[in-house]
Specification:
There is one protein chain. By secondary structure, the protein is mostly beta strands. 6% of the residues lie in helices and 34% in strands. The strands form 13 sheets. It has a 26-stranded mixed sheet that branches. It has a 17-stranded mixed sheet that branches. The radius of gyration is 32 Å and the shape is globular. The two termini are 22 Å apart. This is Lipoprotein.
C-alpha cells in the first residue's frame, strides 16, 4: 500500500530531525542563503492524546502522534492520525499495569528503525480490529513517504501471554514443564520484548483482525530476532483472523508455545521462514497462504518442538488445515516447502506445496524425535498434495523404515505430482480452477475439531472466493515482476501532452499496428492507447504473452483500434473486484459523450475446433484432417482461428470491462465487444462485462471455452451469440437491454449456411437473467434458438416490458428437430414478459414453443414481471420469489464441478450480487425519467457553507420539503436534510424517493429526519461496495460523533397494528378499525396503520444509519429506523444502525420482514418490537458498547393492553447479541414482556461479567404465552459471564432457566469465547434449519448471526464491530 507523497523525502527527513531535537533552531542552507524556518503550526482541530506527542506532518498525514515508553492505562490509536512508534512501545508492564490498546479500523502505525516495535505484555491486550475495506496497517516510514521499501525497516509486533511453553521447564529431571514450573514461568522473548509463559491456556491477549505488518524485522543475534508477528505464550482466547506479514526480515509469524488459534493468514515475501512453530505450540490454524519471492526466502513452514530438548513437553502438537505454499527460485538460503524437525508432532491436513524448478526440497522430516513421532502416528499429514517442479518433492526419511515420500503417500488422501501444471491453477498460482484435483479432494477438518470451518478442498482457496482480496498487499495476481512494459520496450511513446484532461497517469500510445513478439506488460501506472490492430503474437508464430495488470485502462480512439491475441499466444488480463481492467474509448476517459462503436474491441483467436473448419467435401463434418489444418478468417480482419485442440489456452480474462466498442466492416463482418474464435477450454474467463458495443456483446465462433459471471449491458445487437460448433459452458450471465438500441439477448445458432454441420454447437448454460427493453430499432427480444443449434439450457429467467419483442423462439427445421429429439432442452426456467408474446412459433413438428417449453421439467410462464417478486433493480429476487429454490443444480445433473451448485433460477440468489464493485451501468432500479431533487428545485447548492466537505458538492433540501412526485437523490452530491423531509403526504400525493448506491444523506440536528408516508416509497438500493449512508454533519466534517446528532429514518405503512383498536369492548382491532386506522407515529412523523399486511413501503438494502435519534418525550422518540405499520412487500436487507440515541430499529406492528441487520452501540434497545408485529427476521447482529446501552431485544405486544390483537407474533432466527459493561441503563440481553408471543431460534446471547441479565420473561400475559407454547425459544445458547444468564420466572411453574433448558436444542455455555470469536459463531451447538420452518428463511446449519468464515458484514459495515 502506497500513500501519495505530498512532501519530498528530503523534506520529511528534515522534519524528523526537527522532531528529534531537544532544542535550538534548525537552519537549512539553500545555496548561500541561511533560512531559519518558523515553527510549523499545529494541525487545526486535532490534538494527540496525553500518552502521545504531536509531531509534524509525515507524508500525506497531517495529524501525527508519536508514542514512546509503556502504556499503563487503556489507550486508543484512532484512524484520523498516523501513529509513530519510538523505540519499544509496550502495552502494560509484565503482569502489572494491565492495559488495553485499541486500534481503530483503517489506522496506520509506523516505525522508523528496527528498534521501533510494539509489544503487548502479559496481562494486557491489543484490540486491533480492522475491516476488509479498512485494514490496520503497521509499516515503515519509507512506505508512507514513497521511499524505497525493503525488509527490516522497523521492528514488528509482539504478543506475550500466559499460556504454556515447554521452555518453562527449569531443567530439573526430565524435559517436562510441570504445573509448578508453568505457574512460575517467565521466559525471555526474542528481541528484548519481555517475558512470556504461564499456566493459562485460555489467556487472552486481545484481537488481531485485518491487520497488515509490512517491511519489519530486526536481527539482534543468531536466533534472537523480531519477527513480523511473534506469538509468545499466547492463549486461545486471543482472536487472530485475517492477518498478513509482508517482507519481514526474519520469520513472518512465529509461535513460541502457547495455544492461540489463527485463521486467514497471508505471508508474502518474507526473508526467512514464513510460518514457524516451536516450544510447545498446541493451537490451530486454517487458511494460510505462503508466497515466496525470488529475492529472499527460506522455508514456507519450519516446524519444531524444541531444538535443544526435542522431547520437551508440553509437546508442540498443533492442528492445521487448508495451507497453500508457493515457493520461488530465491537462492539466498533457498526457497523450501515444509520442514518438520526437532521433535515436533502435529496434524496437517489439506496442505498444498508447489513451486518452480529453482525451488529447494518441498517436504522433509528431520531428526530422530520428529521421525519417531511420524512413526508413532503423532505426526501426520493427510489429504495433501506436493507438486514441485524441482525434481525434489521429498527429501530423506520420515521414519526408520520409510522415506518421506513413502510416509507421505501412505497416508489418506495424499498425492504427488512432478509437474505443477497438473494442479490446474489459475494464473495467479494459488487459486484452483474448475476440474483441479484439489477441489473436492480435501478432508473436512471441522469433523476433527469444531473450531475449523467445514471444507472439502486441498489448499487455502476453494476456487471461487479469494479471501485475500480487498485487504492484503503484495499477493501475486499472475502479473510478472520481470517483464518490461510496452513503453520500456520502446513499443509505445508518451503522448500525455495530447490529453490535458487526463491528469492521473501518463498516457502511452502504442506504435501503429504493433505485433508483440516477446512477452510484454501493460502496467497500471499508465493509460495505454491502442493504435490500429494491436496483436499478441503472429499466427502460430512468435508466441507471446501480454500481461495486463489489475486496474489498467486500455483505450481505443477509433473503430480501427482493437486488441487481438492470436493462435499460440495469450492475453493474461487479471483484474480484481476493486481494480478491474477497463478497455474503453478515448471519449470515456476524457469526459466526452460516450456511445457504441467508439473503438474496436477485443478478439481471442485459438486452436479449438469449429465446424467452419469443414472444407466443403462430402457431408458437413469437419473431420480430423480438416481440423488439424484449419485456418478460418475471423471477422473484423483480426486473423485466423480454429484447429484440433479443444483444450487450447488463450490466457485469462478476469474482472475485465469492455465499453463503447465495436465496428461493422460489412454485413456479418463485425468486431464484437469480445470475440471468442476457436478458443479452448484451458482459457479462463470469469467476471467480464461488455457495455454498449456496436454489434454483439460476446460471440463464440466454435471453440470450447467456458465462461462465468458475464454482464452484457446496452449492446447494440445481440448480447450473447453462439455459433459454428461452440461446445463450452456458461454460468451466471446477466443481460440488460436499454431502450435505445437492442436486438436479441441470446442468438443461438449452429451454422447458418450448413445447419447440420459438425462439431455440433451444443453448450451447457445455466443461471441466466435476461431483462429486455422497449428498444424499437431491431427490437429487444429474448432467446432465439435456430440454424441447427443444440444445447442444454437451465435456470433461465427472461423478462421485459410491454414494448419488448418475443421472449422465446425456436426457428428452423434443424433446431426444431434437435428440440424434438431431446438434443435441445430448456428446463427449470421462467418466461415472464409483459408483451403478450412470451413465445413465438413452433418448437417441433407437433408442439408450439409454449407447449414444448411448459412440458419440460421445472418450467413456468407468467404474464407480468411483478409475479417474479424482484427488487426495483429488476433482477434481484426478493425473499419468497418464485425463482428461489426452484432451480436445478447443473453441477449435479452433469456431475461437473465446473458448475457452481445452485438451487435458483436466474443469475442471482437474492443475497449476493456478484456484479457489485466492478461493473458499470447496471440498473439501479431508478427509472430514467426520474429527475433529481435539485433539478426539481427542491434543493440548492450550498457547498460554500461546508468548506470541510470537499469530495462532492453539498446540496441542502428545502426546509420541511414534501416530495409529491417521484424524485431521486444521486451519488454525485451530498444531500442535507432540513427539518422533516417527507415522501408523499398521508395516503395522498404518492411518490417514490429513489436513492442511488453510494449516496450520503446528512442531518444537522434532531429535527432533521426522513419519512416515507403511507402510500409512498423509498427505494434505497445501496450495494456492498457502495452502501447508502445516512449520518450527521459531525461525521462528515471530522468532528466528534455521538448519539442523537440528527433525527433518523421512518417508514409509515398501511399494515395492521393492535393500536388500531379504538377502545371498544375487547382488545381486538377488528376489520373496520383496521380499515380506518390512523395512528400517530412517534417523533411527529405522521400516521400509520391499516388493513393491508402486504403493503409496500419500498426497499432498504445496504443502508447505514449513524448517530441519529431524538427524544421528544418519554416513549416518544425517533429511532434509528422506525418501521410503523410497514407491510411484507417492503424489502429490508443489509441495514445497520450505529449509535442511535434511542432504539436501533423498532417495529410498531406491521408485517415487514428483515434480514442482515447490524445494530451497534445504540443508546437504548437495539431491536424492539411491539403493537402486533408479525414479520420475520434472520441474521441480526447486536453489539453493545461500554458507554451506553440497554437491551439487545426488548419485545412487547402492547404495554397498556397486553392481550391486544393482532398479537405480536414474529418468527426470528440467527441472532447474536453481544452485551457490554455499560452502566447507564445497563446492557441486557433479551426481555420478553407485555403479552408478546413469538418464535425465536438459533440465538446466541453473550456478554462480559459487567452485563445485566441475559434472558428474562416478564408479565403474566407473556408468561401465559410461554406456558401455552405461543412463545418459544429453541436451538439457542446463553453464555453470559455475569452470573445472571436468567432472571425470574417464565411461566407459573417454571423459572426462565427451566423454561429455556426444557426446549429443544438449548444450552448454556460458560462464556463468550465458547460461542463467538469477535462476532462470528464458533460454537458447534446444533441449529434449526429455518427453511424447514418457513421457506422465507435461508437454510441454516449454525446458530447466531454470522457463520465463521462467512462474514456478511464485510465491506459495508465500517464502524461498530471493532
Amino acid at each position: 500500500m502506497k500513500f501519495k507523497r505530498l512532501i519530498s523525502v528530503g523534506a520529511v527527513a528534515g522534519l524528523l530531525s526537527l522532531a528529534g531535537c531537544g532544542g535550538g533552531d534548525i537552519k537549512i542552507v539553500e545555496g548561500d542563503e541561511v533560512v531559519t524556518p518558523p515553527p510549523p503550526p499545529p494541525p487545526s482541530g486535532f490534538s494527540c492524546p496525553d500518552f502521545a506527542t504531536q509531531i509534524e506532518a509525515i507524508g500525506s498525514f497531517s495529524n501525527v502522534c508519536q508514542v514512546t515508553g509503556t502504556l499503563t492505562a487503556d489507550a486508543t490509536f484512532t484512524s484520523n492520525a498516523l501513529w509513530v512508534l519510538s523505540g519499544r512501545v509496550a502495552v502494560g508492564n509484565d503482569r502489572a499495569d494491565s492495559s488495553t490498546l485499541t486500534i481503530e479500523a483503517g489506522t496506520t502505525v509506523i516505525g522508523r528503525s528496527g528498534d521501533d516495535f510494539l509489544v503487548v505484555r502479559r496481562g494486557s491486550k491489543i484490540e486491533a480490529s480492522g475491516t476488509q475495506s479498512a485494514p490496520i496497517l503497521m509499516t515503515s516510514f519509507e512506505d508512507i513517504t514513497d521511499a524505497p521499501t525493503a525488509i527490516g525497516q522497523w521492528g514488528g509486533l509482539v504478543l506475550l501471554g500466559n499460556a504454556p511453553s515447554n521452555l518453562c521447564d527449569t531443567a530439573d529431571a526430565g524435559d517436562d514443564a510441570d504445573a509448578t514450573e508453568l505457574a512460575n514461568c517467565s521466559v525471555n522473548a526474542e528481541g528484548d520484548a519481555g517475558l512470556y509463559g504461564g499456566d493459562d491456556p485460555n489467556d487472552n491477549s486481545g484481537t488481531l483482525r485485518y491487520v497488515i505488518v509490512k517491511q519489519a524485522g530486526k536481527a539482534l543475534g543468531s536466533g534472537d530476532e523480531l519477527n513480523g508477528i511473534s506469538f509468545a505464550g499466547v492463549g486461545d482466547a486471543t482472536t487472530v483472523d485475517y492477518i498478513q506479514v509482508h517482507e519481514n526480515l526474519d520469520d513472518g509469524v512465529e509461535f513460541f508455545g502457547g495455544t492461540v488459534n489463527v485463521k486467514h493468514v497471508v505471508l508474502t515475501g518474507n526473508g526467512d521462514d514464513s510460518f514457524d512453530w516451536s516450544f510447545g505450540w498446541t493451537g490451530k490454524a486454517q487458511y494460510v497462504y505462503v508466497q515466496h519471492n525470488d529475492a529472499k526466502a527460506h522455508r514456507g513452514f519450519e516446524l519444531d518442538n524444541n531444538e535443544d530438548f526435542p522431547a520437551a513437553t508440553p509437546l508442540t502438537n498443533p492442528a492445521v488445515s487448508n495451507i497453500t505454499i508457493v515457493g520461488s527460485t530465491a537462492i539466498d538460503e533457498g526457497s523450501e516447502g515444509i520442514l518438520l524437525r526437532n521433535g515436533t508432532a502435529g496434524r496437517l491436513h489439506n496442505v498444498l506445496v508447489t513451486g518452480p524448478a529453482g525451488m529447494g526440497e518441498c517436504l522433509e522430516v528431520n531428526g530422530g524425535e520428529a521421525q519417531a513421532n511420524a512413526e508413532a502416528g503423532n505426526l501426520i499429514m493427510t489429504h495433501s498434495v506436493i507438486a514441485c517442479d524441482n525434481g525434489e518433492n521429498f527429501k530423506g526419511n520420515a521414519t526408520a523404515a520409510l522415506t518421506t515420500e513413502n510416509w507421505f503417500l501412505g497416508q489418506a488422501g495424499n498425492s504427488a505430482y512432478s509437474d505443477s501444471s497438473a494442479l490446474n491453477l489459475d494464473v495467479n498460482g494459488y487459486q484452483p480452477l474448475a476440474g483441479s484435483p484439489l477441489l473436492g479432494a480435501g478432508t473436512d477438518a471441522s469433523a476433527i475439531d469444531a473450531w475449523f470451518d467445514a471444507t472439502n478442498y486441498i489448499g487455502a482457496f476453494d476456487g471461487t472466493n479469494d479471501w485475500t482480496e480487498g485487504w492484503a498487499v503484495g499477493v501475486r495476481g499472475g502479473f510478472p515482476a520481470n517483464v518490461q512494459n510496452a513503453f520500456q520496450k520502446g513499443l509505445a511513446t508518451d503522448v500525455s501532452s495530447e490529453f490535458p484532461q487526463i491528469t492521473d497517469k501518463p498516457v502511452y500510445r502504442l506504435a501503429a499496428n504493433t505485433t508483440f513478439t516477446a512477452d510484454v506488460t501493460f502496467t497500471n501506472d499508465a493509460h495505454w492507447i491502442l493504435n490500429g490492430r494491436t496483436a499478441v503474437g503472429n499466427d502460430r508464430a512468435d508466441n507471446t504473452t501480454l500481461y495486463v495488470q489489475q486496474g489498467t485502462t486500455i483505450i481505443g480512439e477509433t473503430g480501427d483500434d482493437f486488441l487481438v491475441a492470436r493462435r499460440g499466444s495469450k492475453l493474461e488480463a487479471i483484474g480484481t473486484q476493486g481494480a478491474p481492467i477497463v478497455m474503453t474509448s478515448i471519449q470515456d476517459v476524457t469526459g466526452q459523450e460516450t456511445g457504441i462503436g467508439q473503438w474496436g474491441g477485443l478478439v481471442l483467436l485459438g486452436n479449438a475446433p469449429s465446424n467452419l473448419c469443414d472444407t466443403g467435401d462430402a457431408g458437413d463434418d469437419a473431420d480430423a484432417t480438416e481440423l488439424a489444418n484449419c485456418s478460418i478468417s475471423a471477422e473484423g480482419d483480426a486473423g485466423l482461428y480454429g484447429g484440433d485442440n479443444p483444450t487450447d489456452n488463450s490466457g485469462s480474462l478476469k474482472y475485465v470491462v469492455v465499453k463503447h466498442a465495436g465496428k461493422k466492416l460489412s454485413s456479418g463482418n463485425e468486431l464484437n465487444g469480445i470475440s471468442f474464435a476457436g478458443v479452448g477450454s484451458e482459457t479462463m474467463v470469469d467476471y467480464i462485462q461488455v457495455h454498449e458495443n456496436l454489434d454483439d456483446g460476446v460471440e463464440f465462433f466454435g471453440g470450447t471455452v467456458n465462461v462465468r459471471h458475464v454482464v452484457l449491458t446496452g449492446n447494440g445487437d445481440d448480447s450473447f451469440d453462439w455459433s459454428f460448433g461452440w461446445t463450452g459452458k456458461a454460468q451466471f450471465v446477466y443481460v440488460q437491454h436499454n431502450d435505445n438500441i437492442a436486438h436479441r439477448a441470446f442468438e443461438l445458432d449452429n451454422n447458418e449456411d450448413f445447419p447440420a454441420a459438425t462439431p455440433l454447437t451444443n453448450p451447457i448454460v445455466s443461471n441466466v437473467t435476461i431483462v429486455g427493453s422497449n428498444a424499437t430499432d431491431e427490437g429487444s427480444e429474448g432467446v432465439l434458438l435456430r440454424n441447427g443449434t443444440a444445447g442444454r439450457l437451465h435456470n433461465f429467467v427472461v423478462t421485459g416490458p410491454a414494448g419488448m419483442g418475443e421472449c422465446l423462439e425456436v426457428n428452423g427445421t434443424e433446431a426444431q428437430a434437435n428440440a424434438e429429439a431431446g438434443n435441445l432442452i430448456m428446463t427449470h426456467s421462467v418466461i415472464a414478459c409483459e408483451n403478450g408474446e412470451n413465445f413465438k412459433g413452433d418448437a417441433t413438428s407437433t408442439q408450439t414453443v409454449e407447449t414444448w417449453f411448459l412440458a419440460q421439467a421445472g418450467n413456468s410462464a407468467l404474464d407480468n414481471v411483478e409475479a417474479l417478486n424482484l427488487l426495483a433493480d429488476g433482477y434481484t429476487p426478493r425473499a419468497g420469489s418464485t425463482l428461489l429454490g426452484t432451480g436445478v443444480d447443473a453441477s449435479d445433473v452433469y456431475d461437473d464441478n465446473w458448475f457452481k451448485s445452485t438451487d435458483y433460477i436466474g443469475a442471482f440468489d437474492g443475497n449476493t450480487n456478484w456484479m457489485d464493485g466492478w461493473t458499470v451501468a447496471v440498473n439501479t432500479g431508478i427509472p430514467a425519467s426520474v429527475t433529481s431533487a435539485d433539478a426539481q428545485s427542491l434543493a440548492t447548492d450550498q457547498s460554500a457553507n461546508y468548506p470541510a466537505i470537499t469530495d462532492k458538492p453539498v446540496y441542502v433540501l428545502n426546509t420541511d420539503v414534501v416530495f409529491t412526485t417521484d424524485v431521486k437523490l444521486t451519488s454525485d452530491k451530498h444531500w442535507v436534510l432540513k427539518g422533516r423531509t417527507a415522501v408523499g403526504n398521508d395516503k395522498a400525493d404518492n411518490a417514490t424517493l429513489y436513492i442511488e448506491p453510494g449516496t450520503t444523506l446528512i442531518g444537522e440536528s434532531g429535527d432533521d429526519f426522513l419519512v416515507a408516508r403511507r402510500g409512498s416509497k423509498i427505494e434505497a438500493l445501496g450495494s456492498a461496495s457502495a452502501p447508502i449512508n445516512m449520518t450527521s454533519i459531525q461525521d462528515m466534517t471530522g468532528q466528534a460523533t455521538g448519539i442523537g446528532q440528527w433525527g433518523g429514518l421512518v417508514l409509515l405503512g398501511n399494515a395492521p397494528s393492535n393500536l388500531c383498536d379504538t377502545a371498544d369492548a375487547g382488545f381486538d382491532a377488528d376489520e373496520t378499525e383496521l380499515a380506518n386506522c390512523s395512528i400517530n407515529a412517534e417523533g411527529d412523523a405522521g400516521l400509520y396503520g391499516g388493513n393491508d399486511p402486504e403493503d409496500n413501503s419500498g426497499t432498504l438494502r445496504y443502508v447505514v444509519v449513524k448517530y441519529a435519534g431524538k427524544a421528544l418525550g418519554s416513549g416518544d422518540e425517533l429511532n434509528g429506523i422506525s418501521f410503523a405499520g410497514v407491510g411484507s412487500n417492503t424489502t429490508v436487507d443489509y441495514i445497520q444502525v450505529h449509535e442511535n440515541l434511542d432504539d436501533g430499529v423498532e417495529f410498531f406492528g406491521g408485517s415487514v420482514n428483515v434480514r442482515h441487520v447490524v445494530l451497534t452501540g445504540n443508546g437504548d434497545d437495539s431491536f424492539d418490537w411491539s403493537f402486533g408485529w408479525t414479520g420475520r427476521a434472520q441474521y441480526v447482529l447486536v453489539k453493545h458498547n461500554d458507554t451506553k446501552a440497554h437491551r439487545g431485544f426488548e419485545l412487547d405486544n402492547n404495554e397498556h393492553f397486553p392481550l391486544s390483537t393482532p398479537l405480536t407474533n414474529p418468527v426470528v432466527a440467527n441472532i447474536t447479541i453481544i452485551g457490554s459493561t455499560a452502566i447507564d441503563e445497563g446492557s441486557e440481553g433479551v426481555l420478553l414482556r407485555n403479552g408478546t408471543a413469538g418464535s425465536l431460534h438459533n440465538l446466541i446471547i453473550t456478554g462480559p461479567a459487567g452485563m445485566g441479565e441475559c434472558l428474562e420473561i416478564n408479565g403474566t400475559e407473556a408468561q401465559d404465552n410461554a406456558q401455552a407454547g405461543n412463545l418459544v425459544m429453541t436451538h439457542s445458547v446463553v453464555a453470559c459471564e455475569n452470573g445472571e444468564n436468567f432472571k425470574g420466572n417464565a411461566t407459573a411453574t417454571q423459572t426462565t432457566e427451566e423454561w429455556f433448558m426444557g426446549q429443544t436444542g438449548n444450552s448454556v455455555a460458560a462464556g463468550m469465547a465458547d460461542v463467538i470469536t469477535g462476532f462470528e459463531t464458533v460454537t458447534d451447538a446444533a441449529a434449526l434449519d429455518m427453511d424447514t420452518v418457513d421457506s422465507w428463511f435461508d437454510s441454516t446449519d449454525f446458530i447466531g448471526a454470522v457463520k465463521a468464515g462467512d462474514d456478511w458484514t464485510a465491506g459495508w459495515v465500517t464502524v461498530g464491530l471493532e
